[in-house]
Amino acid sequence: MSIIASARQQWLANPRRDLLAGTVVALALIPEAIAFSIIAGVDPAVGLYASVVIAVTIAFVGGRPAMISAATGAMALLMVTLVRDHGLEYLFAASLLCGVIQIIVGLFKLGRYIKFVSRSVMTGFVNSLAILIFLAQMPELLGANWQTFALVAAALVIIYGLPRLTRAVPSPLVAIVLLSGFVVWTGLDVRTVGDMGQMPSTLPMFHIPVVPLTWETLMIIGPISATLAFVGLLESLLTANLLDDITDTPSDKDPCSAAWRAAP
Predict the structure, then answer these.
(1) Predicted pLDDT of residue 39
(2) Three-state helix/strand/coil letters over 181-247
(3) Contacting residues for 48 by C-beta, under 8 A, at least 6 apart
(4) What confidence score (pLDDT) does residue 221 get?
(5) Which of 103, 118, 162, 261 lies in the 20 to 30 Å Cα band around 203?
């Protein structure tokens, strides 16, 4: 009964807020995943599928509530050279090896050492994420028409102005729904998410990377995988630390090791 009560507390404590937050994140992740896919040099469907898998997985094995994992600019930039020189199959293989490395880090409980990172590094990290997201969106603004800039300004007004009136509904969600509806209704000549890449219409298929299982392959993907693993871990752990400070609640920095200990 205690397990059921604990699960109910984690998953059903505030369903309204969770559904609203999940909707905002999902709507924001679609263009972001497509943009980062373009940066990495892969089909937008790859980024969308990866974001879905990561987001669903982290909901069950993540170290704390109110934290989501998905595509990031820093990770996308690290993939560019591998995709350009060796192709998508090598990226799949590197991603699997990256996951293995992260599992090993979790089993050895190395996440605890994140507490030694200084506050100034955390501040710089969060600001750099904002800069990366901003730079990723700049190509969509450069050379755009005046309608695009008007919509951006309207979105900012809604996002920062609505909380002064009410916090019942997340202001980013209101901005996305209202402005998207306005664009559809008026037929404004602006770029949409569909213009960035073809949206997938089917579920992904299970796929084993088609790469030779040789030492040469390991030498190609090994450095990239290790870099991806530690950059991803650093982003996740620093974000968890930041949420710990904001919410004044602790989080498990080694969720993988916790799951391993709880397994029969």
Answers:
(1) 75
(2) HHHHHHCCCCCCHHHHCCCCCCCCCCCCCCCCCCHHHHHHHHHHHHHHHHHHHHHHHHHHHHHHHHH
(3) 30, 33, 34, 37, 199, 200
(4) 92
(5) 103
72 exposure class (CB count in 10 Å sphere: 0-12, 13-18, 19+): buried
**Lookup: tokens for 46:** 């790859």
| Rounded-to-integer distance, Cα 22 and Cα 25, Å | 5
* Residue found by looking up tokens 């990770």 in the block: 75
pLDDT for res 256? 45
> Can you read off the two tokens belonging to residue 142?
């450069």
| Own/partner pairs, 161-169, CB within 8 angstroms, 24+ separation | 169/20
Integer Cα distance of 25 and 226 in angstroms: 28
Largest CA distance in the chain: 61
Contact 78, 199 (CB under 8 A): no
Q: Are 144 and 191 in contact (CB under 8 A)?
A: yes
Alpha carbon distances (Å) from 218 to 19, 34, 98, 212, 221: 42, 28, 12, 9, 5
pLDDT given at position 93: 92
Rg (CA), the chain: 20
Question: pTM for the full model?
Answer: 0.67
